[in-house]
Specification:
With 85 residues, the chain is an all-alpha fold. It has helices at residues 5-41, 46-62, 68-83.
Length: 85
């Protein structure tokens, strides 16, 4: 730990942000995996799961957790898989 109060506060806030970002990234990953599995299986709920995954990606991009280009790439791949049926 540093001696400065300001740098200690920065370290604490960075840790809180890191944990929050990790939670969001994990939920995005979960939604994407579920959408891909249901699209591969040809389930009727694949469209709903894909829209939920796209929504979670958009939220992560708007919060700055995922870069916008990566978000666009993820959404594009999801839609390609969904339309492949």
């Amino acid at each position: 730990m540093s001696a400065s109060k300001g740098s200690n506060k920065v370290a604490r806030t960075a840790e809180r942000r890191r944990l929050r970002n990790r939670l969001v990234r994990g939920s995005v990953k979960t939604h994407i995996v579920k959408a891909k599995r249901s699209a591969d299986a040809g389930e009727e709920s694949a469209n709903e799961k894909t829209m939920l995954a796209i929504s979670s990606v958009d939220k992560a991009v708007s919060k700055g957790i995922i870069h916008r280009n990566k978000g666009a790439r993820l959404k594009s791949r999801l839609m390609k898989k969904l339309n492949k049926k």
